[in-house]
Amino acid sequence: MKANNFSLRMFRALALEILACLVIAGCTVGPDFQRPTTSTPPQVFERTQSAQAPSKAVEAGFSPDWWTLFNDPTLNALEQQLADANLDVAAASARLRQSRAEQRVAGAAEYPTLDGAASYDRERGSENGILSLLGVSPTETQSQSASGGAPLGVAPLPGSKGSPAYNLYQAGFDASWELDIWGRNRRGVEAATALTEASYEDRNAVLLSARAELARDYIELRDTQSLLRIAKQNLEIARDTTKLTQVRVHEGVTTDLDVANASAQAASIESLIPTLEARCETTINAIGVLLGEEPGALQKTLGEPHDVPELPAQVPIGFPSELVQRRPDIRKAEADLHAATASIGMAKADFYPRISLNGSAGFQSLQLSSLANWASGQFVVGPSITMPIFEGGRLKGTLHLREAQQQEAAIVYQRTVLEAWREVDDALVVYDAEQQRRDRLTAVVALNQRALSVAQQRYKAGALDYLDVLNVQKQLLDGQSKLEQSKATAAANLITLCKALGGGWESTYANSSASR
């Protein structure tokens, strides 16, 4: 009866201790993360009011599918394939799944652990070891085991003779639970969750970069095809002029010098064609790599020449307050700062005692037939505590390291935001400026075309030297090439602007596939 009362008092004391630990378990050391505040430079979006180009940036709802602004069905189809096919995005998605697995591993520290085990041992005590303290003689043997049967155990009483081998069967469960009194495990889960968010934003950044690269390659392809078309058109003009000079030489109106100049001009233009054709092939291959295709797989889809897509009349760029919420690099920097802040709490929690509840229950028997009997049952239960006393400065060093890492993360966040605003401002400036340059080049090309027509007429009439015609034709070819390149540059600047605004990852696929 006394034994039962003693056991009851011990159980009550243990229960009170556990309850007290759970009451104070809500304490979490270390700083709580506060989302950083950023100011919006008003002068950046004010540039939309001073823009002079036809395609204007306006403060309106920004579309995540910004490539649809070009109204090009082929580009739209390629962008739809990209998220599923791009290998860089697939690798980033794999890294995200790794990060989420690590988050789950970190979260397991908040829960108890339970292990099952079973064992069989054939044992014999050393007669010159502990058994000698019991008076077991190393020279004589024992005829009966500790279980009363065959000689399977050590001598049951001091002074018995011998120590034969015996069997030991055990089966049971071990349990352990560290009470997260100071919030170390909770801070660990918080840090792991923040790192998972950073990995997700890193994937979004990869997807955004891949989309922008695909759009740029597509614009470059259409630009090269347009330059190739211009070169072929000018080659026809040069060949016609060469034939005209040959006729004039035959008529005695001019000399072989004009024929040589005309032929040289035609050959010079013709030399551009192989380079442009090769550039078309390599650009198609570059697009194929982005879509996970083998070389030449997109030749039928992209081989037919098309002009550079026209710019939209308006480009909705969203609102200043949305930039921080939309750019993946800013969101990643914020998540990294969050993880660094939570790591400080983990470092501080290491200064405090760690309390665990441990227990085991199971069966132990010298005979397998009696292992499952209640008489073979055993259990051990009780708390354990560990407290750092002397660590040689390791804990303080770790804390200072985590604090310095958080300071670095805060600086990186500020720099990332500042860089984002610079990119947006620069993109708005160059987008407007290139359109103005394109419009001026359009006027130049129109004048060159008129000049060439007049020069050819006067040359046919014998009122103009062929060198003048040749110079006008060179100016026209140069102007047309610059105009086409300017159109492509303006389109590329629009892509840069949309990328700087952070759009292109907020698709259904990005959210669904990243969650798998």
What form results from the Cα inertia axes? elongated
What would you say the CATH architecture is? Up-down Bundle
How far apart are the termini?
59 Å
What percent of residues adopt helix (DSSP H or I)? 55-70%
User: How would a crystallographer describe the biggest sheet?
Assistant: 4 strands, antiparallel
Structural class call reads alpha+beta
Proportion in β-strands: 5-15%
SSE sequence, one letter per element: HHEHHEEHHHEHHEEHHH
Q: How many strands appear in the DSSP assignment? A: 6
Question: Any low-confidence stretches, pLDDT <50, length ≥5?
Answer: 141-157, 508-516
CATH topology: Outer membrane efflux proteins (OEP)
Overall mean confidence score, pLDDT: 84
Radius of gyration: 41 Å
| Count of all domains | 1
Q: Strands of the largest sheet, in order across it?
A: 2-3-5-6
CATH superfamily: Outer membrane efflux proteins (OEP)
Assign the CATH class. Mainly Alpha
Helix count equals: 12
